[in-house]
Amino acid sequence: MPKLYLETVGCQMNVLDSELVVGSLRRQGYELAHTPEQADVILFNTCSVRQHAEDKIYSALGRLRPHKRKYPDKVIGVLGCMAQKDQELIRKRAPHVDLIVGTGQLAQLPALIRNVQETGTLQIALSLDRTAGRHEVERSFESYDPLRDPSMRPNRFQAYVRIMIGCDKFCTYCIVPSVRGPEQSRPPEHIAAEVRQLAGEGCKEVTLLGQTVNSYKYGRLRLGDLLAKIHDTPGIERIKFITNFPKDMTDDLLDAVRTLPKVCPYLHVPAQSGCDDVLRRMKRLYTVGFYNDMLARSRELVPGVAISSDFIVGFSGETEESFERTCDLVRTGGFKNSFIFKYSPRPGTKGHELYADDIPEEVKKRRNNDLLAIQNEVSLQDHRRMIGKRVEVLVEGPSKNAWKHETTGPIQLTGRTPTDHIVVFDGNPRLAGATVAVDVVEATAFTLFGDVVTGEHATRSSDGDDTAPAKALDTATRISLPIL
Ligand code: 5AD
Ligand code: SF4
Protein backbone atom coordinates (compact mmCIF):
# COMPACT_ATOMS: atom_id res chain seq x y z
CA MET A 1 0.00 0.00 0.00
CA PRO A 2 1.32 3.49 -0.79
CA LYS A 3 1.98 5.57 2.29
CA LEU A 4 0.97 9.18 3.00
CA TYR A 5 2.48 11.65 5.46
CA LEU A 6 0.47 14.82 6.02
CA GLU A 7 1.51 17.64 8.33
CA THR A 8 -0.97 20.38 9.14
CA VAL A 9 -0.37 23.87 10.49
CA GLY A 10 -2.88 26.65 11.04
CA CYS A 11 -6.53 26.97 11.85
CA GLN A 12 -9.45 24.58 12.22
CA MET A 13 -10.25 25.03 8.52
CA ASN A 14 -6.91 23.43 7.74
CA VAL A 15 -7.53 20.60 10.18
CA LEU A 16 -10.78 19.91 8.36
CA ASP A 17 -9.17 20.21 4.92
CA SER A 18 -6.54 17.68 6.00
CA GLU A 19 -9.22 15.27 7.14
CA LEU A 20 -10.83 15.54 3.71
CA VAL A 21 -7.50 15.05 1.91
CA VAL A 22 -6.77 11.91 3.91
CA GLY A 23 -10.31 10.68 3.24
CA SER A 24 -9.88 11.02 -0.51
CA LEU A 25 -6.39 9.48 -0.57
CA ARG A 26 -7.42 6.54 1.61
CA ARG A 27 -9.99 5.70 -1.02
CA GLN A 28 -7.08 5.52 -3.49
CA GLY A 29 -5.46 2.90 -1.24
CA TYR A 30 -3.12 5.11 0.78
CA GLU A 31 -2.40 4.46 4.43
CA LEU A 32 -0.95 6.93 6.91
CA ALA A 33 2.75 7.06 7.81
CA HIS A 34 4.07 8.65 11.01
CA THR A 35 7.19 10.25 9.51
CA PRO A 36 8.02 11.71 6.09
CA GLU A 37 10.81 9.14 5.72
CA GLN A 38 8.30 6.27 5.79
CA ALA A 39 5.99 7.87 3.21
CA ASP A 40 5.69 7.80 -0.58
CA VAL A 41 3.70 11.03 -0.64
CA ILE A 42 4.66 13.84 1.76
CA LEU A 43 2.21 16.72 2.06
CA PHE A 44 2.18 19.96 4.05
CA ASN A 45 -1.11 21.72 4.59
CA THR A 46 0.02 25.27 5.21
CA CYS A 47 -0.98 28.57 6.80
CA SER A 48 -0.12 32.16 5.83
CA VAL A 49 -1.62 34.09 8.70
CA ARG A 50 1.77 34.77 10.32
CA GLN A 51 5.35 34.61 9.03
CA HIS A 52 6.25 32.08 11.71
CA ALA A 53 3.87 29.48 10.23
CA GLU A 54 5.48 29.92 6.80
CA ASP A 55 9.03 29.68 8.19
CA LYS A 56 8.15 26.35 9.82
CA ILE A 57 7.13 24.90 6.45
CA TYR A 58 10.21 26.18 4.61
CA SER A 59 12.48 24.58 7.20
CA ALA A 60 10.56 21.29 7.03
CA LEU A 61 10.88 21.38 3.23
CA GLY A 62 14.60 22.20 3.53
CA ARG A 63 15.17 19.19 5.77
CA LEU A 64 13.56 16.96 3.14
CA ARG A 65 15.83 18.06 0.32
CA PRO A 66 18.53 15.39 0.79
CA HIS A 67 15.79 12.79 1.30
CA LYS A 68 14.17 13.68 -2.02
CA ARG A 69 17.58 13.55 -3.71
CA LYS A 70 18.00 10.02 -2.43
CA TYR A 71 14.42 8.97 -3.26
CA PRO A 72 13.44 10.99 -6.35
CA ASP A 73 10.20 9.02 -6.82
CA LYS A 74 8.73 10.38 -3.63
CA VAL A 75 6.12 13.10 -4.11
CA ILE A 76 6.38 16.25 -1.99
CA GLY A 77 3.47 18.69 -1.98
CA VAL A 78 2.60 22.08 -0.52
CA LEU A 79 -1.15 22.55 -0.01
CA GLY A 80 -3.40 25.33 1.21
CA CYS A 81 -2.84 29.00 1.92
CA MET A 82 0.92 29.23 1.30
CA ALA A 83 0.54 27.34 -1.96
CA GLN A 84 -2.15 29.76 -3.08
CA LYS A 85 -0.14 32.82 -2.03
CA ASP A 86 3.47 32.01 -2.89
CA GLN A 87 3.87 29.54 -5.73
CA GLU A 88 6.87 31.40 -7.17
CA LEU A 89 8.64 31.58 -3.84
CA ILE A 90 8.03 27.90 -3.12
CA ARG A 91 9.50 26.98 -6.50
CA LYS A 92 12.53 29.12 -5.76
CA ARG A 93 13.14 28.14 -2.15
CA ALA A 94 12.12 24.49 -2.48
CA PRO A 95 12.64 23.37 -6.08
CA HIS A 96 12.26 19.73 -5.00
CA VAL A 97 8.52 20.29 -4.41
CA ASP A 98 6.35 18.37 -6.92
CA LEU A 99 2.91 19.73 -6.10
CA ILE A 100 1.50 23.18 -5.30
CA VAL A 101 -2.24 23.03 -4.60
CA GLY A 102 -4.52 25.81 -3.32
CA THR A 103 -7.34 25.45 -0.79
CA GLY A 104 -10.04 25.37 -3.47
CA GLN A 105 -8.33 22.65 -5.53
CA LEU A 106 -7.72 19.98 -2.90
CA ALA A 107 -10.34 17.71 -4.46
CA GLN A 108 -8.02 17.31 -7.46
CA LEU A 109 -5.20 15.97 -5.31
CA PRO A 110 -5.45 12.24 -6.17
CA ALA A 111 -5.27 13.03 -9.90
CA LEU A 112 -2.44 15.54 -9.42
CA ILE A 113 -0.36 13.01 -7.47
CA ARG A 114 -0.86 10.48 -10.26
CA ASN A 115 0.27 13.09 -12.79
CA VAL A 116 3.50 13.70 -10.85
CA GLN A 117 4.15 9.99 -10.61
CA GLU A 118 3.49 9.43 -14.32
CA THR A 119 5.20 12.49 -15.78
CA GLY A 120 7.71 13.53 -13.11
CA THR A 121 6.73 17.15 -13.65
CA LEU A 122 5.63 19.82 -11.21
CA GLN A 123 1.83 20.04 -10.88
CA ILE A 124 0.22 23.32 -9.91
CA ALA A 125 -3.49 23.87 -9.17
CA LEU A 126 -4.48 27.27 -7.84
CA SER A 127 -7.33 29.78 -8.06
CA LEU A 128 -6.40 32.32 -10.69
CA ASP A 129 -8.10 35.24 -9.01
CA ARG A 130 -10.68 35.79 -6.30
CA THR A 131 -13.58 35.36 -8.70
CA ALA A 132 -12.21 32.24 -10.34
CA GLY A 133 -11.76 30.85 -6.84
CA ARG A 134 -15.46 31.31 -6.20
CA HIS A 135 -16.38 28.97 -9.03
CA GLU A 136 -13.92 26.25 -8.07
CA VAL A 137 -14.87 26.22 -4.45
CA GLU A 138 -18.59 26.17 -5.09
CA ARG A 139 -18.06 22.99 -7.03
CA SER A 140 -15.88 21.57 -4.33
CA PHE A 141 -18.78 21.88 -1.89
CA GLU A 142 -20.68 19.40 -4.02
CA SER A 143 -18.00 16.86 -4.51
CA TYR A 144 -15.63 17.19 -1.64
CA ASP A 145 -17.05 17.90 1.78
CA PRO A 146 -19.14 14.74 2.14
CA LEU A 147 -16.01 12.59 1.97
CA ARG A 148 -15.15 12.40 5.63
CA ASP A 149 -12.65 10.14 7.32
CA PRO A 150 -13.42 9.75 11.03
CA SER A 151 -10.09 8.01 11.61
CA MET A 152 -8.28 11.26 10.75
CA ARG A 153 -10.01 13.08 13.62
CA PRO A 154 -8.70 12.97 17.19
CA ASN A 155 -11.93 11.15 17.98
CA ARG A 156 -15.02 9.86 16.22
CA PHE A 157 -17.55 11.84 18.23
CA GLN A 158 -16.39 15.39 17.48
CA ALA A 159 -16.23 16.90 13.99
CA TYR A 160 -15.83 20.19 12.18
CA VAL A 161 -18.38 21.15 9.54
CA ARG A 162 -17.62 23.95 7.11
CA ILE A 163 -20.59 26.23 6.60
CA MET A 164 -18.82 28.95 4.66
CA ILE A 165 -15.49 29.73 3.11
CA GLY A 166 -13.50 32.87 2.44
CA CYS A 167 -13.85 36.31 3.96
CA ASP A 168 -14.93 39.70 2.64
CA LYS A 169 -13.99 41.77 5.67
CA PHE A 170 -10.44 42.69 4.60
CA CYS A 171 -9.07 43.62 8.02
CA THR A 172 -5.85 45.40 7.06
CA TYR A 173 -3.48 42.95 8.82
CA CYS A 174 -5.07 39.80 7.41
CA ILE A 175 -4.07 37.74 4.38
CA VAL A 176 -7.07 35.40 4.57
CA PRO A 177 -9.42 37.27 2.21
CA SER A 178 -6.83 37.20 -0.58
CA VAL A 179 -5.82 33.54 -0.18
CA ARG A 180 -9.15 31.98 0.77
CA GLY A 181 -11.19 34.06 -1.65
CA PRO A 182 -14.60 35.69 -1.32
CA GLU A 183 -17.06 34.86 1.42
CA GLN A 184 -19.49 32.16 0.30
CA SER A 185 -22.08 30.39 2.42
CA ARG A 186 -22.80 26.76 1.81
CA PRO A 187 -26.37 25.62 1.06
CA PRO A 188 -28.16 24.68 4.30
CA GLU A 189 -29.37 21.36 2.89
CA HIS A 190 -25.76 20.28 2.26
CA ILE A 191 -24.78 21.24 5.79
CA ALA A 192 -27.78 19.43 7.30
CA ALA A 193 -26.99 16.32 5.23
CA GLU A 194 -23.37 16.32 6.36
CA VAL A 195 -24.40 16.71 10.01
CA ARG A 196 -26.82 13.77 9.61
CA GLN A 197 -24.08 11.70 8.04
CA LEU A 198 -21.64 12.52 10.85
CA ALA A 199 -24.30 11.69 13.47
CA GLY A 200 -24.86 8.35 11.72
CA GLU A 201 -21.14 7.62 12.13
CA GLY A 202 -21.35 8.25 15.87
CA CYS A 203 -20.52 11.94 16.00
CA LYS A 204 -22.04 13.77 19.00
CA GLU A 205 -20.59 17.26 18.70
CA VAL A 206 -20.30 19.38 15.60
CA THR A 207 -18.41 22.67 15.39
CA LEU A 208 -19.56 24.81 12.49
CA LEU A 209 -16.64 26.59 10.84
CA GLY A 210 -16.38 29.89 9.04
CA GLN A 211 -13.81 32.69 9.01
CA THR A 212 -16.68 34.91 10.15
CA VAL A 213 -19.19 32.19 10.92
CA ASN A 214 -21.89 34.54 12.17
CA SER A 215 -21.94 36.34 8.81
CA TYR A 216 -23.48 33.13 7.35
CA LYS A 217 -26.17 34.07 4.87
CA TYR A 218 -27.91 31.84 2.37
CA GLY A 219 -30.82 33.70 0.78
CA ARG A 220 -32.74 34.92 3.83
CA LEU A 221 -31.34 32.23 6.09
CA ARG A 222 -28.87 33.36 8.77
CA LEU A 223 -26.74 31.43 11.26
CA GLY A 224 -29.50 31.38 13.92
CA ASP A 225 -31.87 29.74 11.40
CA LEU A 226 -29.20 27.25 10.38
CA LEU A 227 -28.64 26.28 14.02
CA ALA A 228 -32.39 25.68 14.37
CA LYS A 229 -32.40 23.64 11.16
CA ILE A 230 -29.70 21.19 12.27
CA HIS A 231 -30.63 21.24 15.96
CA ASP A 232 -32.89 18.21 15.99
CA THR A 233 -30.48 15.89 14.17
CA PRO A 234 -30.75 12.63 16.16
CA GLY A 235 -27.47 11.70 17.82
CA ILE A 236 -26.05 15.23 17.85
CA GLU A 237 -25.77 16.47 21.43
CA ARG A 238 -23.73 19.63 21.07
CA ILE A 239 -23.39 22.32 18.42
CA LYS A 240 -20.62 24.95 18.53
CA PHE A 241 -19.58 27.54 15.97
CA ILE A 242 -16.36 29.52 15.40
CA THR A 243 -15.15 32.24 14.66
CA ASN A 244 -17.48 35.22 15.13
CA PHE A 245 -17.18 38.76 13.84
CA PRO A 246 -18.25 41.25 16.56
CA LYS A 247 -20.42 43.35 14.22
CA ASP A 248 -22.47 40.35 13.12
CA MET A 249 -23.40 39.18 16.63
CA THR A 250 -27.13 39.85 16.21
CA ASP A 251 -29.81 39.49 18.85
CA ASP A 252 -31.47 36.83 16.66
CA LEU A 253 -28.34 34.70 16.82
CA LEU A 254 -27.98 35.20 20.57
CA ASP A 255 -31.66 34.24 20.99
CA ALA A 256 -30.97 31.05 19.04
CA VAL A 257 -28.00 30.25 21.29
CA ARG A 258 -30.16 30.74 24.39
CA THR A 259 -33.22 28.84 23.23
CA LEU A 260 -31.69 25.87 21.41
CA PRO A 261 -30.49 23.54 24.17
CA LYS A 262 -27.88 21.72 22.05
CA VAL A 263 -26.19 24.97 21.00
CA CYS A 264 -23.35 25.53 23.44
CA PRO A 265 -23.23 28.83 25.37
CA TYR A 266 -19.75 29.57 24.12
CA LEU A 267 -18.76 32.41 21.77
CA HIS A 268 -15.35 33.08 20.29
CA VAL A 269 -15.49 36.76 19.25
CA PRO A 270 -12.05 38.25 18.52
CA ALA A 271 -11.65 41.89 19.60
CA GLN A 272 -8.05 42.24 18.22
CA SER A 273 -7.45 45.53 20.08
CA GLY A 274 -8.90 47.66 22.87
CA CYS A 275 -7.94 50.96 21.23
CA ASP A 276 -10.27 52.74 18.77
CA ASP A 277 -7.38 54.23 16.86
CA VAL A 278 -5.80 50.81 16.27
CA LEU A 279 -9.17 49.25 15.44
CA ARG A 280 -9.72 51.94 12.81
CA ARG A 281 -6.35 51.25 11.21
CA MET A 282 -7.08 47.53 11.37
CA LYS A 283 -10.39 48.34 9.59
CA ARG A 284 -12.32 46.22 12.05
CA LEU A 285 -15.49 48.32 11.50
CA TYR A 286 -16.34 48.70 15.20
CA THR A 287 -15.24 50.69 18.25
CA VAL A 288 -14.30 49.47 21.71
CA GLY A 289 -17.63 50.89 22.91
CA PHE A 290 -19.51 48.75 20.38
CA TYR A 291 -17.50 45.68 21.37
CA ASN A 292 -18.22 46.21 25.07
CA ASP A 293 -21.93 46.64 24.32
CA MET A 294 -21.82 43.41 22.32
CA LEU A 295 -20.27 41.63 25.33
CA ALA A 296 -22.98 43.00 27.63
CA ARG A 297 -25.75 42.09 25.18
CA SER A 298 -24.40 38.55 24.78
CA ARG A 299 -24.28 38.04 28.54
CA GLU A 300 -27.76 39.46 28.98
CA LEU A 301 -29.34 37.38 26.23
CA VAL A 302 -27.39 34.18 26.97
CA PRO A 303 -27.03 33.86 30.74
CA GLY A 304 -23.90 31.92 31.69
CA VAL A 305 -22.30 32.36 28.25
CA ALA A 306 -18.50 32.00 28.07
CA ILE A 307 -16.71 34.35 25.69
CA SER A 308 -13.18 34.08 24.35
CA SER A 309 -11.19 36.48 22.17
CA ASP A 310 -8.13 37.05 19.98
CA PHE A 311 -5.76 40.00 20.27
CA ILE A 312 -2.91 41.27 18.11
CA VAL A 313 -0.18 43.22 19.91
CA GLY A 314 2.36 45.46 18.20
CA PHE A 315 0.22 46.40 15.20
CA SER A 316 1.62 49.37 13.27
CA GLY A 317 1.43 52.55 15.33
CA GLU A 318 0.34 50.82 18.55
CA THR A 319 1.56 53.24 21.25
CA GLU A 320 2.04 52.33 24.91
CA GLU A 321 -1.22 54.11 25.51
CA SER A 322 -3.05 52.09 22.82
CA PHE A 323 -1.63 48.93 24.35
CA GLU A 324 -2.84 50.04 27.79
CA ARG A 325 -6.37 50.32 26.35
CA THR A 326 -6.07 46.71 25.19
CA CYS A 327 -4.90 45.67 28.66
CA ASP A 328 -7.97 47.44 30.09
CA LEU A 329 -10.27 45.50 27.76
CA VAL A 330 -8.69 42.20 28.79
CA ARG A 331 -8.94 43.17 32.48
CA THR A 332 -12.62 44.03 32.21
CA GLY A 333 -13.80 41.78 29.34
CA GLY A 334 -14.21 38.65 31.47
CA PHE A 335 -12.91 36.40 28.68
CA LYS A 336 -12.69 32.70 29.42
CA ASN A 337 -9.43 32.80 27.48
CA SER A 338 -7.74 34.83 24.76
CA PHE A 339 -5.34 33.96 21.98
CA ILE A 340 -2.67 36.61 21.74
CA PHE A 341 -0.50 37.17 18.68
CA LYS A 342 2.40 39.43 17.81
CA TYR A 343 1.66 41.42 14.66
CA SER A 344 3.26 39.81 11.63
CA PRO A 345 3.17 42.08 8.55
CA ARG A 346 1.81 40.22 5.53
CA PRO A 347 2.85 41.40 2.05
CA GLY A 348 -0.30 41.66 -0.02
CA THR A 349 -2.39 43.21 2.76
CA LYS A 350 -3.41 46.87 3.10
CA GLY A 351 -1.71 46.99 6.49
CA HIS A 352 1.63 46.10 4.93
CA GLU A 353 1.10 48.55 2.09
CA LEU A 354 -0.09 51.52 4.17
CA TYR A 355 1.65 51.28 7.52
CA ALA A 356 5.19 50.57 8.68
CA ASP A 357 5.87 47.62 10.96
CA ASP A 358 7.21 50.10 13.49
CA ILE A 359 7.01 48.24 16.79
CA PRO A 360 10.33 46.55 17.64
CA GLU A 361 10.24 42.78 18.20
CA GLU A 362 11.25 43.11 21.89
CA VAL A 363 8.34 45.47 22.49
CA LYS A 364 5.93 43.07 20.75
CA LYS A 365 7.28 40.27 22.91
CA ARG A 366 6.89 42.22 26.12
CA ARG A 367 3.35 43.32 25.25
CA ASN A 368 2.49 39.74 24.35
CA ASN A 369 3.74 38.48 27.72
CA ASP A 370 2.09 41.29 29.67
CA LEU A 371 -1.27 40.73 28.01
CA LEU A 372 -1.00 36.98 28.53
CA ALA A 373 -0.31 37.51 32.22
CA ILE A 374 -3.41 39.71 32.54
CA GLN A 375 -5.57 37.20 30.67
CA ASN A 376 -4.24 34.32 32.77
CA GLU A 377 -5.28 36.12 35.94
CA VAL A 378 -8.77 36.71 34.47
CA SER A 379 -9.00 33.05 33.37
CA LEU A 380 -7.94 31.90 36.82
CA GLN A 381 -10.70 33.97 38.44
CA ASP A 382 -13.22 32.64 35.91
CA HIS A 383 -12.11 29.05 36.60
CA ARG A 384 -12.08 29.51 40.39
CA ARG A 385 -15.72 30.57 40.30
CA MET A 386 -16.49 27.10 39.01
CA ILE A 387 -14.99 25.27 42.00
CA GLY A 388 -17.79 23.49 43.88
CA LYS A 389 -20.03 23.37 40.82
CA ARG A 390 -21.16 20.35 38.88
CA VAL A 391 -20.44 20.51 35.15
CA GLU A 392 -21.40 18.38 32.19
CA VAL A 393 -18.36 17.05 30.34
CA LEU A 394 -18.13 15.43 26.93
CA VAL A 395 -15.19 13.09 27.49
CA GLU A 396 -12.56 13.38 24.75
CA GLY A 397 -10.15 10.67 25.98
CA PRO A 398 -6.97 10.28 28.04
CA SER A 399 -5.27 13.55 28.99
CA LYS A 400 -1.73 14.38 27.83
CA ASN A 401 -0.33 13.06 31.11
CA ALA A 402 -2.55 10.00 31.31
CA TRP A 403 0.04 7.37 30.60
CA LYS A 404 2.90 8.89 32.56
CA HIS A 405 1.87 7.81 36.04
CA GLU A 406 -0.92 5.27 36.12
CA THR A 407 -0.47 1.72 35.02
CA THR A 408 -3.68 0.22 36.40
CA GLY A 409 -7.00 1.59 37.56
CA PRO A 410 -8.62 4.80 36.40
CA ILE A 411 -6.52 7.13 34.29
CA GLN A 412 -6.56 10.87 33.79
CA LEU A 413 -9.21 11.83 31.23
CA THR A 414 -9.97 15.15 29.61
CA GLY A 415 -13.10 16.70 28.14
CA ARG A 416 -14.96 19.96 27.78
CA THR A 417 -18.03 21.59 29.25
CA PRO A 418 -20.66 23.21 27.00
CA THR A 419 -18.91 26.51 27.83
CA ASP A 420 -15.70 25.04 26.33
CA HIS A 421 -13.90 24.79 29.67
CA ILE A 422 -11.31 22.00 29.78
CA VAL A 423 -11.90 19.54 32.62
CA VAL A 424 -9.46 16.85 33.76
CA PHE A 425 -10.55 13.99 36.04
CA ASP A 426 -9.83 10.32 36.74
CA GLY A 427 -11.97 7.73 35.00
CA ASN A 428 -12.13 4.72 32.76
CA PRO A 429 -10.88 5.39 29.22
CA ARG A 430 -14.05 3.69 27.97
CA LEU A 431 -15.89 6.87 28.99
CA ALA A 432 -14.48 8.56 25.86
CA GLY A 433 -17.46 9.87 23.90
CA ALA A 434 -19.79 9.81 26.92
CA THR A 435 -21.24 12.87 28.59
CA VAL A 436 -20.62 12.70 32.33
CA ALA A 437 -21.19 14.93 35.32
CA VAL A 438 -18.05 16.14 37.06
CA ASP A 439 -17.76 18.04 40.35
CA VAL A 440 -15.09 20.71 40.01
CA VAL A 441 -12.68 20.67 42.96
CA GLU A 442 -9.64 22.60 41.73
CA ALA A 443 -8.68 25.11 39.03
CA THR A 444 -5.72 26.62 37.25
CA ALA A 445 -5.83 29.35 34.59
CA PHE A 446 -6.10 26.68 31.89
CA THR A 447 -7.81 23.66 33.41
CA LEU A 448 -10.53 22.60 35.81
CA PHE A 449 -9.93 19.46 37.88
CA GLY A 450 -12.78 17.39 39.21
CA ASP A 451 -14.33 14.12 40.30
CA VAL A 452 -16.64 12.25 37.98
CA VAL A 453 -20.06 11.62 39.47
CA THR A 454 -21.60 8.17 39.27
CA GLY A 455 -25.13 6.91 39.92
CA GLU A 456 -28.38 8.81 39.46
CA HIS A 457 -26.71 12.21 39.61
CA ALA A 458 -24.44 11.40 36.69
CA THR A 459 -27.14 11.82 34.07
CA ARG A 460 -27.16 14.85 31.82
CA SER A 461 -28.84 17.84 33.36
CA SER A 462 -32.00 18.33 31.35
CA ASP A 463 -32.12 22.11 31.76
CA GLY A 464 -28.69 22.52 30.21
CA ASP A 465 -27.43 24.31 33.31
CA ASP A 466 -23.85 23.15 33.56
CA THR A 467 -23.01 25.45 36.39
CA ALA A 468 -25.60 24.24 38.91
CA PRO A 469 -24.08 24.06 42.38
CA ALA A 470 -22.92 20.57 43.27
CA LYS A 471 -25.77 19.09 45.26
CA ALA A 472 -25.74 15.64 46.80
CA LEU A 473 -21.96 15.45 46.78
CA ASP A 474 -22.23 12.79 49.46
CA THR A 475 -23.77 10.34 47.01
CA ALA A 476 -21.05 10.93 44.44
CA THR A 477 -18.30 8.37 44.25
CA ARG A 478 -15.20 8.25 42.14
CA ILE A 479 -15.47 5.92 39.18
CA SER A 480 -13.18 2.93 39.59
CA LEU A 481 -13.74 0.53 36.74
CA PRO A 482 -10.80 -1.57 35.59
CA ILE A 483 -9.17 -0.58 32.34
CA LEU A 484 -9.36 -3.16 29.59
N1 5AD B 1 -0.35 39.04 12.49
C1 5AD B 1 -0.66 38.55 13.71
N2 5AD B 1 -1.81 37.94 13.97
C2 5AD B 1 -2.72 37.83 12.98
N3 5AD B 1 -3.95 37.29 12.96
C3 5AD B 1 -4.44 37.42 11.71
N4 5AD B 1 -3.55 38.03 10.92
C4 5AD B 1 -2.47 38.32 11.69
C5 5AD B 1 -1.23 38.95 11.46
N5 5AD B 1 -0.90 39.46 10.27
C6 5AD B 1 -4.60 36.72 14.14
C7 5AD B 1 -5.93 37.40 14.47
C8 5AD B 1 -6.93 36.35 14.08
C9 5AD B 1 -6.17 35.08 14.37
C10 5AD B 1 -6.71 33.88 13.69
O1 5AD B 1 -4.88 35.36 13.90
O2 5AD B 1 -5.97 37.63 15.85
O3 5AD B 1 -8.13 36.46 14.84
FE1 SF4 C 1 -9.00 38.00 8.55
FE2 SF4 C 1 -10.63 39.95 9.45
FE3 SF4 C 1 -11.58 38.06 7.74
FE4 SF4 C 1 -10.96 37.38 10.27
S1 SF4 C 1 -12.58 38.87 9.64
S2 SF4 C 1 -10.40 36.23 8.39
S3 SF4 C 1 -9.22 38.69 10.69
S4 SF4 C 1 -10.01 39.59 7.29
Task: Describe the structure in your own words.
This protein has helices at 12-26, 51-63, 65-70, 81-85, 87-93, 109-119, 130-143, 176-180, 188-200, 223-231, 251-259, 276-282, 288-301, 320-333, 350-354, 361-384, 402-405; strands at 3-8, 31-32, 41-46, 75-80, 99-101, 123-125, 158-162, 164-165, 184-185, 205-209, 217-218, 221-222, 238-242, 266-268, 306-313, 338-342, 390-398, 411-416, 422-427, 435-443, 448-452. It has 484 residues and is an alpha/beta fold. The chain has 3 domains: 3-136, Methylthiotransferase, N-terminal domain (Rossmann fold); 146-384, pyruvate-formate lyase- activating enzyme, CATH 3.80.30.20; 386-484, OB fold (Dihydrolipoamide Acetyltransferase, E2P), CATH 2.40.50. The chain has a 6-stranded parallel beta sheet with strand order 2-1-3-4-5-6, sandwiched between helices. A 5-stranded mixed barrel has the order 17-18-19-21-20. Helix 10 packs parallel to helix 11 (251-259) and helix 14 (320-333) runs parallel beside helix 16. The longest helix has 24 residues, at 361-384. The chain is globular, with a radius of gyration of 23 Å. Iron/sulfur cluster binds at residues 167, 169-171, 174, 176-177, 211-212, 245. The site of iron/sulfur cluster has 10 residues, from helix 8.
